[in-house]
Design brief:
There is one protein chain. By secondary structure, the chain is an alpha/beta fold. It has a single domain, classed as 3-Layer(aba) Sandwich (Rossmann fold). The chain is about 35% helix and about 20% strand. The protein is built from eleven helices and eleven strands. The chain has a seven-stranded mixed beta sheet, sandwiched between helices. The chain has a four-stranded mixed beta sheet with strand order 4-7-5-6. Helix 4 crosses helix 5.
Length: about 280
C-alpha cells in the first residue's frame, strides 16, 4: 500500500481533491491522514466512525465528502430524502448524486440559473427539479447574476459577498455573465409543496451568499431536518449561521476540517452517535 507523506494538517477538501486527482482510495487516504495525526478534529470518536463508513463507497461526487457524511448520519434510521440547492448540473460536485444513484435516496434539486437546466434534467431524471430561486419568501422577482463561471452564479445582492474572504471567487464571478430575473420560492414552501410538509432528512445549501437569510426565515419549530451542510466561504455569515443553528438545537461537527462548509447535526441524533 502506498504511503502518503503528509507535511501539514489537512482538511476534507484537500484530501478529496488529492484522491480525485491521483485516483487514490478515499478510505485509505483518510485513514492514513488520521492515523499519522494530520487529520485532526476535537470530535475524534465521530471522525473515526465516519472514516469507517467510507468502506465500499464509490462514485463520490462531492467536494469534501458531504454525500458520504449524509449517508453516515442518516443510515437506515431516517427517511432517505434530500433537498440540494443550488444543484448546478446535478452531477459534478453534487452532494446528492451518490445518495440517489447508489443508495436509493429520493429528493429535490433546486437550481435557478438557466445555464444548468438542460444538463440537470438529463443527469437527474429521478429527482424533482425546481427552477425557482429559494429565498426568504415566495413569489418575488429578484435580480440574479448568471455568471459564465456557472457554479458562482448568485443573487445580484450577493455578487461581492466573498470579496474579502475569497476574492478570487468574486473576480471570476464578475468577469463575465448577465443579469436576469428569477422567481422565488421559500424553503418552507419547498417542503410544503414537494415533501408533503415533512422535512427531508438532509438539506445541502450552496447559494453563494444568501444562505443565512434563507435559514433565518425557515420554520425550525415545524421542520427538523437531521442534517444540514451549508457553504459559508469564510464570510461573516459563517458566525451568523453558527449562532442560528446552535440556537435551533443543532451541533456543528468537524469545524476545522470542513473548509468552506459548515455541517450541522440535530443535537439528539449527534448524542446517539457518540454513545
Amino acid at each position: 500500500m502506498e504511503q502518503i507523506n503528509f507535511k501539514k494538517k489537512v482538511n476534507f477538501w484537500e484530501l478529496a481533491s488529492f484522491a480525485k486527482a491521483k485516483n487514490f482510495d478515499n478510505e485509505i487516504l483518510l485513514r492514513q491522514a488520521f492515523n499519522k495525526g494530520f487529520l485532526i478534529d476535537e470530535k475524534k470518536i465521530l471522525l473515526e466512525k465516519f472514516i469507517d463508513h467510507f468502506r465500499d463507497k464509490k462514485d463520490i461526487k462531492s467536494q469534501l465528502y458531504q454525500d458520504v457524511f449524509a449517508s453516515f448520519i442518516i443510515g437506515n434510521k431516517f427517511d432517505k430524502t434530500f433537498l440540494e440547492f443550488g444543484a448546478t448540473n446535478g452531477l459534478d460536485l453534487s452532494n446528492t448524486f451518490m445518495l440517489e444513484s447508489s443508495f436509493g435516496w429520493k429528493g429535490v434539486l433546486s437550481e435557478p440559473s438557466p445555464q444548468w437546466h438542460t444538463s440537470l434534467k438529463v443527469n437527474r431524471k429521478n429527482s424533482n427539479i425546481i427552477t425557482k430561486c429559494i429565498w426568504t419568501e415566495s413569489n418575488k422577482k429578484l435580480d440574479f447574476f448568471e455568471s459564465d463561471a456557472g457554479e458562482l452564479s448568485t443573487l445580484s445582492d450577493y455578487l461581492e459577498n466573498d470579496i474579502k474572504s475569497m476574492p478570487g471567487n468574486t473576480r471570476l464571478r464578475k468577469k463575465s455573465g448577465k443579469l436576469i430575473k428569477v422567481e422565488t420560492i421559500s424553503l418552507n414552501d419547498v417542503i410544503k409543496n414537494y415533501f408533503q410538509n415533512k422535512a427531508p432528512s438532509y438539506i445541502s445549501i450552496d447559494t453563494e451568499g444568501s444562505e443565512f437569510e434563507i435559514l433565518n426565515f425557515f420554520d425550525f419549530k415545524k421542520f427538523k431536518p437531521v442534517l444540514f451542510t451549508i457553504e459559508h466561504n469564510f464570510t461573516k455569515s459563517q458566525i451568523e449561521i453558527d449562532n442560528l443553528m446552535i440556537s435551533k438545537n443543532y451541533i456543528r461537527v468537524f469545524r476545522e476540517i470542513t473548509a468552506f462548509d459548515a455541517w450541522y447535526v440535530l443535537k439528539d441524533v449527534y448524542n446517539e452517535l457518540i454513545r
